[in-house]
Each structure stands twice: as structure tokens, then as C-alpha cells.
Design a protein that fits this description.
about 230 residues, 10 helices, Dynein assembly factor 3 C-terminal domain-containing protein, DNAAF3_C, globular, DNAAF3, two-stranded antiparallel ribbon, about 45% helix, mainly alpha, two-stranded antiparallel sheet
């Protein structure tokens, strides 16, 4: 269900009229970061509100969102989907601490190797990903807040893969959250998205514009976000 609800929301953003959201804005929203820009967050909140309101109304849903067919879903699944749309809405006094949830899950996944996570991240990048034609993922610092972290390492540490120096990323991306079972029947929402490969491989590794793939002394001239934006804007 978590993937299903994400497809619904992201398709809604992708098919948004250019009059209400330009293509560059869609690129910024669909980057797959754990944190979003405030304008992107507000736009997504409005989209979630629309989905929450039209979902129970079959006639309204067919008129405003004919692309989506929910007839095969069970009533319990429909209730679960609507609860997710409600969770995505901004609620005053309640902030989903996605960075805290990300850090907790990362520490659990690293286990006894948590004290040496930097070495593990560098190994994954240089020995695994770059052996699979992922040279565009840079070993250089790629974030405005971290001059010591590599672009890939910063993503593994924070869940933030793509950044623009002129923007602030401060709002939780709730599409990366999902139900997690704890002791007994207690269910809590936490970070459940990918924590290793990241969104780099989707559109950020190859380009028809060879200029974007140039490098000097193993330092890329352009970042995966630049390649991604160019591919999506073609």
C-alpha cells in the first residue's frame, strides 16, 4: 500500500497543469529527498488535501481523477489509503521528525559497524556502485551544509541526495514514511524508503549531453542533480 499511495501522489504531481506548477518545480519536488523545500511541501500538502477529500466520493473521484481506479481495493485497504492522505496533511503542533527516524533506522541497519559507517559508505560507493557504471555519483563534497562529506556519503547520512545552494530543505517528505510494527500490535510511522542506492540511478547517471559527464582529476564537472534536471527537462 505504501508504494500504491506514493504512485497516486507522484502521478498527480507529474500530471499537474503547467499553469499551476512549472516543470522545474516538479523536478525539485520529485527528487526523492527526505526533506523538501517549503514551497514544494505546501504544494504537496494541497495535493494531499485534494486526494483526501475526493477519495471517499466516487462521483467526485471519477470526475477529477479518472486515471485512478480503486474498484479492486478492499474496504480496509481504502481506509488505509485515506489514512495515509490524512497523515500527509500538515497538522499544526505535530511535525513528523523524519531526520530522527532516518538516523534511528540507519543506526539499526549499520549494527556493529555503526562506528565505522564512513568507511562502509565509501566502500559501497567505490567498490560496488562505481563498478556498475555509477561514476557520476561523486566522491567530492556535494552539499551546501557539509564540506567534509562526499555527495554520496551525505545522502547516506541524511537521506538528502539532491540539493541546490539557493534553496533551504527543511520540511519532511512524508511519502518516505510508512507503518512500522513495534512490540505487540503497536504501529508507528517511520522512515521506510531506500537508504543505500538513493535516487541517483533513476535519471542522474547518463545523459545525451556529454558535457554533463565530463570530469577533471576524478572530480565531476556536474552533479547527478544537474544530469537529472537536464534529462527531465528535455
Amino acid at each position: 500500500m505504501n508504494l500504491y499511495q506514493n504512485y497516486v501522489a507522484l502521478l498527480g504531481v507529474t500530471l499537474e497543469s503547467p499553469d499551476s506548477m512549472i516543470l522545474r518545480g516538479k523536478v525539485h519536488l520529485l527528487c526523492g529527498n527526505s526533506l523538501l523545500r517549503a514551497p514544494s511541501y505546501q504544494h504537496f500538502n494541497g495535493k494531499s488535501k485534494s486526494l483526501f477529500e475526493i477519495f471517499p466520493n466516487c462521483e467526485c473521484r471519477q470526475r477529477l481523477a479518472p486515471l485512478f481506479k480503486f474498484g479492486s481495493l478492499k474496504y480496509r485497504e481504502r481506509d488505509g489509503l485515506q489514512n495515509v492522505f490524512r497523515f500527509w496533511l500538515a497538522e499544526e503542533g505535530h511535525v513528523f521528525q523524519i531526520q530522527q527516524h532516518y538516523a534511528e533506522r540507519l543506526k539499526k541497519l549499520m549494527g556493529v559497524g555503526d562506528d565505522h559507517r564512513d568507511g562502509a559508505f565509501d566502500w559501497d560507493l567505490n567498490m560496488i556502485l562505481k563498478g556498475r557504471q555509477s561514476q557520476q555519483i561523486s566522491s567530492q563534497a556535494g552539499n551546501i551544509d557539509s564540506t567534509k562529506s562526499t555527495e554520496y556519503r551525505y545522502r547516506r547520512e541524511t537521506g538528502i541526495a539532491f540539493t541546490y545552494p539557493e534553496y533551504e530543505y527543511s520540511k519532511p517528505n512524508k511519502t518516505a514514511a510508512g507503518p512500522v510494527h513495534y512490540a505487540g500490535n503497536y504501529i508507528h510511522r517511520a522512515y521506510v524508503d531506500d537508504m543505500q542506492t538513493g535516487p541517483f540511478s533513476a535519471c542522474g547517471l547518463i545523459s545525451t549531453d556529454e558535457r554533463l559527464l565530463l570530469s577533471t582529476h576524478d572530480q565531476n564537472d556536474y552533479r547527478p542533480i544537474d544530469v537529472t534536471e537536464d534529462n527531465l527537462l528535455e
